[in-house]
Specification:
Layout: E1 3-8, E2 11-15, E3 17-18, E4 21-22, H1 31-71
Antiparallel strand pairs: 1-2, 3-4
Length: about 70
């Protein structure tokens, strides 16, 4: 979960952790940091798509069960 640190009044630096290391050092955001964050976003999107598919599969299974019960 991202954490905000107050450096000076009105100046907030985001520290983002992925696993066991900080991606963004205070005041030092690099292209490598951006690539790591983009990779994290892509991984999250993939996870969300898998969750959506699982939900759809469960809903279809429940619908089929309800249809069968309705015929009994």
């Amino acid at each position: 979960m991202p954490q905000s640190q107050q450096k000076e009044e009105g100046d907030v630096v985001e520290i983002v952790t992925t696993g066991d290391r900080d991606v963004v050092d205070e005041g030092n955001f690099s292209s490598e940091s951006a690539q790591i964050l983009i990779g994290e976003i892509m991984g999250c999107n993939r996870d969300l798509e898998n969750i959506k598919q699982n939900i759809n599969d469960v809903q279809n299974k429940m619908k089929n069960i309800i249809d069968v019960l309705g015929r009994v």
